[in-house]
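FYI - complex with 26V, inputs then prediction.
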Amino acid sequence: MASKHSKKTANTTAKAPVADAVNTAAECSCTNDLFHPTVEQFKDSITTHLRRSIGTSEKKASPLAWWQAVVYAVNELVFERLTQTQFTHASNDTRAVNYLSAEFLMGRLTVNNMCNLEVYDTCKKALAELGIDINELCDEEPDMALGNGGLGRLAACYIDSLATLKYPSIGYGLHYENGLFRQEIRGGRQVERPDSWREYGCPWEVCRPESTQEIPVGGYVEVQTAPDGTEQKVWHPAHMIKGVPWDIPVVGFRGASVTVLRLWESRATEQFNWDVFNAGGYVDAQEEKAQCETISKVLYPNDSTEAGKMLRLTQQYFFCACSLKDILRRYNRAHHHDYSSFASKIAIQLNDTHPTIAVPELMRLLIDEEGLSWDAAWKIVTEVFAYTNHTLLPEALEKWPVYLFERLLPRHLEIIYEINAHFLDGEVERMWPGDNEKRAKLSIIEEGPCRMVRMANLCVIASRRVNGVAEIHSKLVREQLFPEFAAIWPDRFCNVTNGVTPRRWLLACNPGLAELYNEVSGKDWPLHLESCAKMRPYADNADFRKRFMDVKHANKVALAAEIKKLCGVDVDPNALFDVQVKRLHEYKRQHLNLLYILSLYNELLADPAKTIVPQVFIFGAKAAPAYTLAKDIIYAINKIGERINNDHRIRNQLKVVFIPNYRVSLAEKIIPAADISEQISTAGYEASGTSNMKFSMNGALTLGTMDGANIEIVAEAGVENNFIFGLSVEEVQELKARGYNPWDYYNADPVLKSALDWLDTDYFTPGQAGALSSIKRSLLDHGDPFLVLADFASYRDAHKRVEEMYKDKERWARAAIINSASMGKFSSDRSIEDYVHNIWSLKSFDVAEHK
Ligand code: 26V
């Protein structure tokens, strides 16, 4: 039910008439006269929603009910803008990008939407007058954790930028009932708990039953011969699954436009239920129903087991098939099954290989259902798709057994075979005539005892563009992952360096720093992050340095309180906060960090009079549930932290905390409080990294390797303002080629040796010697695949440089300011403009008032 002020939203006036398309977002003015409710109107809206939408009263309402009422009040503005956006796009028959991603790590939406609509202060005042603290209220919101890490969060940042830059766009994904697991730490170990983020409903989302889709699976393919002798393939699926869309509108900065995130929920079809019910009775019908609903039940945590493989492939197919049918339905509303302009209206971005099945599915829809020829369909497909690679890790490059396709998607398998035959007999044969080795290497099908479908090969063959996510990564994609494909199609490969939204990662999460930016760069900096360069000269102003570091200190005080609440550990906000928060993986080398901590602790114990810069090492990380070594590293961090934090001999100069259940909403509290950002992956393994950008924006100095986007970050902010260490990509490859022996480093470096040997004792796990030994074994007996020992000395040296600089407060403040002021390039708005100009060719549209 609408409250009073909703009607007035029509006051919005857009700067351009409906038909006015502009070429770039930079050229168009953002709508900044969107209706802004007064404090009184907001209070009225919130209390009206409490009574009329939720059926409670100010006296009785629970904190959750208050939060819901606030969301309804804010959503009135969002929905008004959504309608206007959709009207504008429909009446202009716009070209749009469809961003297909198995993950969208949205986090919380309340503060973000309020900030983007510039109603945060009004809402805060309104709530204060109603006796509610806005921070406590916003803490009621569960994170939408529909992603594992970087890839999913990137998709969320891109949706924010697409809405802000007014590009016609939609995000398509899965409506997981359970997001990434909630992490508890028990006895130092990770325990996974389900994350039912919408157990009590999510007030931001809206179900769209009218756009439900039915998706076929299983069965067999029949070859029918038409009277003219041509063969036709007819798929007789075994089942139909229902896809129900849930829309989450994402509002751009100053309400520029609204991009919808459409997430598909799987259900059993009524017909299907009824048939099974008739055949096998109620229990069977319930079981089949449960099977259909399982598809969107859980997000896979990066380590799918054999048993989960079929389900994961079904998930990928399900959301791609729903999305493509939705895309075709919307296209045909205006084009009535004339596919001649399909490729000029539609761009589809594949976020990693997870949505690759969309390629054969679009072929199938165009050929089998719309009657196009193979060539006509293939022409459309190769004009429409583009693929982003997010990792070079071999175990993360998806391959699916052929037998799974035979069972689940028999028609798609045929289409894949045909695509493969065209490619091998065409491009490959022309380039390397008669070369069977090349054919085997480039084939979509990997031969062997278990034949596999290589999804990345299919992606590259079908896509107009293939991009990596940072300069170095794109170079490795071109030169090492897909060299032959790059030889065939040199222009297909490109780079789009990642970016993050400055609205969430600065404006909303660091209001103190945002205020400084307002003063120095004017209030438009969230739209033009390059303008933050105006803050650079202020690095030389002592007064400004003090204000900048006062903001940092206040953020550290707040984080210290959070750490006390979550970990029970007292940390001093005057200490150096050294932070490593990200998924736990050997290549990210949390254990390198831990070895340094052990060496530092050892130094302090060896010389009880020693004084160092007081330091707090802060970790946050989830490990994939089946990744034993990663879980052992979490255990080690916790046990080592426990011992160090309670050792009075070191006089509180060193603390180690592991903050449980790291997620977007925690990142928003941790990142603004960091002094040091640990970005210490083995060079060549971190495709880009995105937290590195968030930390720098918020004035942390990077302690990192020359890997991923670190390289571009220090190019912008100055190597002298950060701490670079370790082997380069080339040096890593040379060392591996020469034959790397971790024992050489162990035997040569007594500091390293004693840190490693400590892990074999029961010093940190009393009575349980060897409880931490698996880490040492992986580094020595199992070859140290990520060169932790090779980089240890250089890392330790970098830490000593950190300490030195931290002692010089003015020098540190200067470096922090320069880092923050130099991050213009890493706004996701820049990334989206790169995609638009190099891949998608979109026009932005000023959203007009809808009368
Ligand atoms: C996937 C898997 C799947 C199975 C086994 C282990 C494993 C390990 C890693 C992954 C990575 C998934 C892809 C991903 O999240 N990549 C991240 O994408 C970010 C956005 O582009 C980028 O900043 C990170 O560097 C990259 O790791």
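Residues 149-151, 154, 302-303, 352, 390-391, 393, 395-396, 469, 498, 686-690, 708 surround 26V (CB under 6 Å). Residues 1-33 have pLDDT under 50 and may be disordered.
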